[in-house]
């Protein structure tokens, strides 16, 4: 009888060793919708407190060694000192996010604006972000542009692409040898008729024209409902142009909910293509980031839940029996191939992951350990007064 080989947790555990999920500083501040931003006890008042919260997530999970900053929300006088502060807490400073969406000058565009002065102002902001990166040691500059138009005829869509290309080229020029630019796309919002970087194809075209240090950033919440996101992952990895993920989940639009909460199967399918495309290999340069808001739930446990969701779906994706899958695919066994795939998805890895964590000196159940630690009550008692951090 032919021996059946089954991929087991022990066989894949080593692949989880180096997994790192970058957390966003803004997840620890207050956020909301255009209707209301709710305050919550214990919310950081300063960049340092946001970094401390990110370090707490890493302490409980071992999964988030970097925190990503947003400029100007996280502007400080001395970024070298901020870097030392973070490192003392056991965490590094990661991706720097630019912001050209909160200034009146940018109402009709920033890097695409028809007015040279406003374009230059937006370019200068990005150059200042690169100055920050020089001090924080960050590798990636992440650019998300809120640019587009609301009404047909309002703008010259073609001219805006040309100006975007020119502005990006000026920013790209300033990158150091070890620095990269990642261009994020989003199909709509805040512009409702056309968006200047609406899809992966436009981002790809723009970054391909820049050179080897420019990549696409894929935010999972930035697609039309029903989009096959894992196909985009596969394609960008195939092209060597997937720079980073912004993980979150959505039911309707850009909901920024906890990754893996709305559609765990979609996260599994994405992580399968990540593994398939080599993005989990030790030499991979793909950055795995969260881009989330915790509008009503506590923020630190929300982030702990998020990184654990990514880890769980990564483990399940690694459990796909690739040999059996390839055999079924090649022999045209439609249902057999699907069954191999689904077997891995339906495998509950939580008990094995709990043991795996305990073997590494981490709590088996980080969510419960955080709840039992009293840390939330402590920050709620300590952080009284001041202005809670938000989108400012
Ligand atoms: C835009 O919706 C976005 O996803 C971009 O990544 C921003 O950097 C982030 O949200 C926070 O504004
Ligand atoms: Mn994003």
TrEMBL record:
Entry GO MF terms: L-rhamnose isomerase activity; manganese ion binding
EC class (word): isomerase
Name this polypeptide is given: L-rhamnose isomerase
UniProt-listed GO biological process terms: L-lyxose metabolic process; rhamnose catabolic process
Biological classification of the source: Bacteria, Bacillati, Actinomycetota, Actinomycetes, Propionibacteriales
Entry's EC annotation: 5.3.1.14
Keyword tags: Cytoplasm, Isomerase, Manganese, Metal-binding, Rhamnose metabolism
Keyword presence, Metal-binding: yes
PANTHER family assigned: L-RHAMNOSE ISOMERASE (PTHR30268)
Species annotation: Aeromicrobium fastidiosum
């Amino acid at each position: 009888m032919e021996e059946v080989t089954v991929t087991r947790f022990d066989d894949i555990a080593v692949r989880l060793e180096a997994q790192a999920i970058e957390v966003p500083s803004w997840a620890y501040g207050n956020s909301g919708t255009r209707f209301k931003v709710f305050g919550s006890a214990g919310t950081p008042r300063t960049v340092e407190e946001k970094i401390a919260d990110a370090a707490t997530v890493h302490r409980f999970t071992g999964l988030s060694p970097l925190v990503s900053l947003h400029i100007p929300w996280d502007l400080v006088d001395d970024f070298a000192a901020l870097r030392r502060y973070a490192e003392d807490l056991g965490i590094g400073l990661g991706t720097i996010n630019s912001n050209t969406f909160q200034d009146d000058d940018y109402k009709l565009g920033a890097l695409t604006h028809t007015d040279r002065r406003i374009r230059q102002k937006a370019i200068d902001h990005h150059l200042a972000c690169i100055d920050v990166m020089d001090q924080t040691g960050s590798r990636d500059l992440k650019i998300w542009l809120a640019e587009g138009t609301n009404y047909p005829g309002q703008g010259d869509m073609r001219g805006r692409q040309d100006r975007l290309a020119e502005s990006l080229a000026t920013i790209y020029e300033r990158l150091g040898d070890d620095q990269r630019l990642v261009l994020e796309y989003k199909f709509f919002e805040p512009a409702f008729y056309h968006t200047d970087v609406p899809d992966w194809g436009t981002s790809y075209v723009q970054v391909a024209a820049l050179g080897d240090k420019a990549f696409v950033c894929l935010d999972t919440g930035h697609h039309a409902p029903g989009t096959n996101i894992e196909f985009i992952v596969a394609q960008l990895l195939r092209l060597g142009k997937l720079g980073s993920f912004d993980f979150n989940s959505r039911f309707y639009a850009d909901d920024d909910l906890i990754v893996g909460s709305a559609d765990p199967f979609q996260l599994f399918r994405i992580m399968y293509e990540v593994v398939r495309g080599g993005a989990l290999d030790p030499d991979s340069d793909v950055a795995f980031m969260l881009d989330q808001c915790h509008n009503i739930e506590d923020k630190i446990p929300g982030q702990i839940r998020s990184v654990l969701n990514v880890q769980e779906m990564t483990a399940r994706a690694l459990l796909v029996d690739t040999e059996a899958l390839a055999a079924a695919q090649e022999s045209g066994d439609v249902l057999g191939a699907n069954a191999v795939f689904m077997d891995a998805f339906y495998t509950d890895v939580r008990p094995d992951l709990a043991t795996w964590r305990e073997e590494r000196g981490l709590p088996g159940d980080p969510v419960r350990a955080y709840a039992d630690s009293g840390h939330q009550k402590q920050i709620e008692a300590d952080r009284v007064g001041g202005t809670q951090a938000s989108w400012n």
